[in-house]
Specification:
The complex is a heterodimer of chains A (about 350) and B (about 140). Chain A contains 14 helices and 17 strands. With about 350 residues, chain A is α/β, with parallel strands linked by helices. By secondary structure, chain B is of the alpha/beta class. Chain B contains five helices and seven strands. In chain B, helix 1 crosses helix 5 and helix 2 packs parallel to helix 3. Chain B starts with 5 loop residues before the first strand and ends with a helix. The chains are: A alpha/beta (about 350), B alpha/beta (about 140). Strand 5 of chain A pairs antiparallel with strand 7 of chain B, so a sheet runs across the interface.
Amino acid sequence: MRQKILAIDPDWATTDLVKNSLREEGYEVITAADGSEALKKARHERPDVILLAATLPGMDGESVARHLKVHPDTAHIPIIFLITEDELENMVIGADSVATDYVLKPIDDAELKGTMKAVLGEEEEEKKTVISCGSGELDNKMGGGVPLGSLTLIEGSSGAGKSVLSQQMIWGSLQDRFRLSVFTTENTIQSLVRQMRSLNLEIIDFLLLGRIRIYPVEVAQLGTQAPTTLLQAMRRERGRDIIFLDSLTAAMAHSPIEAVLGFFEQAKRLCADGMTIVVILHSHAVNSELLVRIRSLCDAHLQLRSEEVGKKLVKTLEVTKVRGADKTTGNIISFEVEPGWGMRIIPVNKVKG
Amino acid sequence: MATTAHILVVDDDHLTLKVVEQILQRHGYQVSTAINGAEGLELARELRPDLMILDMMMPVIDGYEVYRRMKSDARTADIAILILSAIAEIDFPARIGSQPVAGGRSGQPYEAKSISINFLSKPIKAKELLARVASLLSH
């Protein structure tokens, strides 16, 4: 199928130039002259790339881009800004940019074509479809990583490494340019940042850039309303790629079984709508029958244990289920948590020896 | 300046590299770019630029490590470095392994042991970066 480009510029000479240049390359080109026309066409035509003049009559390019990025139908479309030299000098470095790239005006034909190819190629190559732990070895053992769109349960007893694993996943996802929201009952923003720093996972820049949002939650005050309130809060984070909930344990303490199952069913619905949710749960917080039902509702289930092998206490991660995994799962990984390093996989023979 | 100043920009973000490179070139500087810390160190040794603009937040070899290695290698120790980071600068001397003598506000250099740290906090307008580069190179 031909790739479709939407070019937005009030100056017809510019849109004509873009049209001619890109049609030569086999792209389909449609145009718009202002912001409101652009938004309408973007939603209706679903272009593969948008070329957007920074200066427009009425709504400026930046506002048009923000509108596109919050609308679920258009949020994924890469935007290439068309800017003047003056606008380049006023460009902000290090902000959470809505632009994928830009082309300077007056437009150079070769530069436009090159940028377009790079952006379209990059999109295909960079679109990650799994949550990575930021470590190839760990991902590999987990069947290639947990697919996006999964409702994932990380479960284990105290000190088994649930939070460490989730923090590795948070780190890996940030590296892959996902936007995250983290609800934590275990930490304040500061203590989570510090905890992750001690594992050599520095997230402060991501936090300042808004790529990760951290919400400390006091569930004790919510009582039986905790699961419902959490769900409402999670729904408000629509548009984010991945939500982490560390942990659900306290929220379940005062809730009836129906409310807990209801929580997982609703969470699963959010996943069907394109969200990815990772829930951390203490194994002993619920009875075994309920736990079985929760596990079956989840798409991925990672079980952590702290086991005594000989005289040593060893942490293990069992990947019991990953729906849609690239490779087979059922792996048991032994690991230790080392300050300043994070999760380190221990070879099986070393554990047994 | 008798010759054109040569600037090496190290950042893992393509868009930032492109903006900084283009704006510096348009103002007459000679610019080289590196997309990660390892490449940055290699180019610094090879090209011996007048100034390195260094992003802190990079995978594998981050900016702190690049800074330390630059300063501990005789071939690169005298190259001026302008640090670009979203991290609060107060953390800085500790993380590059020195103690500050006197604190400074964002955008102002302050002494850490014997080295002067040139720091710019992100986000920042391209022309502000340009102004800072010009003032650093005129000293």
